[in-house]
Amino acid sequence: MKRLAATLVCVLIGAIGLSALDNEQFKVGEDLFKRCIPCHGRFANAKPMGKDKDISRLSETEIAAKLRDYALGRTEGAMAAQSSLLDQDKIEALSVYIANMHVKYGEELFALRCSGCHGKDASKSAFGKSDIVARLTEKEALEILSSYQNGAYAHGSTANVMKGRAIALSDQEVLELARYINSLK
Ligand code: HEC
Ligand code: HEC
Q1: Which of 48, 51, 130, 147 could form a disulfide bond with 152, CB atoms 3.0-4.6 angstroms apart?
Q2: Ligand 1 pocket test target in 82, 83, 95 with most atoms within 8 Å of CB
Q3: Which residue, judged by its Cα, is nearest atom 23 of ligand 1?
Q4: Percent of the chain beyond pLDDT 90?
Q5: What is the predicted pLDDT for the residue at 22?
Q6: Which atom of ligand 2 is nearest to the CA of 144?
Q7: Whose CA is nearest to atom 17 of ligand 2?
Q8: How many C-beta neighbours within 10 Å does residue 23 have?
Q9: pLDDT at 155
Q10: 132 vs 2 pLDDT, higher one
Q11: 114-185: which CATH architecture?
Q12: Is pLDDT above 70 for 17?
C-alpha cells in the first residue's frame, strides 16, 4: 500500500513536472520564434518569401522533422541560413510553440471576450438562446463568425448581440478562435 502511494506520488510529480516543462519550452519557443516572424508572420501562417508554406498547420512532429533536416543541412533554400542556429533543444521549443500557439491564443481570447456569455470552454448556451459553441468544427465556427460580421447570419432574436462582438474581431482573431473552438471536442 505504502509502495503504491509512493508510486502514485512519483507519477503525479512526473505529470506536473512534464506540464511545467512544456510551458517552459513554450516560452523559450516564443522567444526564439521572434526571428522567424519577418518571413513566417506573427501567427506562422504568412507565405515566407512568397512561398506557399503555411507552417501553422503542421504538427509538432512535422515541424521538428523539417527543422532537423534544415539543421543537418539536408535541404537547400532560405531556411539553410537558419540551420546553424538550431540545436535539438531549440528545435523542440520552436515546434512546441508553433504547433500550440493557436489554440493557446484562441483560448485566451475566448476567456477574455466570449466566456462571459458562452461559459468556460464554450460549454453553455448564451442567454439560453445560442447553441453550444464547443460542438462546432473549425469550418462551422469560421463560417458563422464571418457571417455575423457581414450580417448574413440571423440565427435568432439575439443575433445583434453577436454581430457587435464579431465585428470587433480581426480576421486573424476569428481564425484563432475557430481553431480553439475546434480543439474542444
Ligand atoms: C529569411 C526568411 C525566413 C526566416 C527568417 C525563417 N524562414 Fe522558415 N522558411 C522560409 C522559406 C522561404 C521556406 C520555404 C522553403 C524554402 O525555400 O527553404 C521556409 C520553410 C520553413 C519550414 C518548412 C515548411 C514546409 O512545409 O516545408 C519550417 C518548419 C520553417 N520554415 C520554420 C522556420 C522557423 C522555426 C524559423 C525561425 C527559427 C524560420 N523558419 C525562419 C523562410 C524563412
Ligand atoms: C454578450 C453576450 C455574448 C458574448 C460576449 C459573445 N456571444 Fe456569441 N452569442 C451570444 C448570443 C446571445 C448568441 C445567439 C445569437 C443568435 O440568436 O444568433 C450567440 C451565438 C454565437 C455563435 C453561434 C452559435 C449558434 O447558436 O449558432 C457563435 C459561434 C458565437 N456566439 C461565438 C462567440 C465568440 C467566439 C465570442 C467572443 C468573441 C462570443 N460569441 C461572444 C452572446 C454572446
Answers
A1: 147
A2: 82
A3: 66
A4: 68
A5: 79
A6: 29
A7: 156
A8: 11
A9: 66
A10: 132
A11: Orthogonal Bundle (1.10)
A12: no
* Pocket around ligand 2 at a 6 A CB cut-off: 113-114, 116-118, 126-127, 129-131, 133, 136, 141, 144-145, 155-156, 158-159, 161-162, 165, 169, 177
Domain ranges of the chain: 1-100, 114-185
For domain 1-100, the question of CATH label 3.40.50.720 is answered with no
For the chain, give the mean pLDDT: 88
Phi-psi region of 151 (alpha: psi -120 to 50; beta: other; left: phi over 0): left
Is pLDDT above 60 for 151?
yes
CA 106 / ligand 1 centre spacing (Å):
24
Residue nearest ligand 2's atom 40 by CA: 114
Residues 6+ apart with CB under 8 A from 130: 117, 118, 155, 156, 158, 162
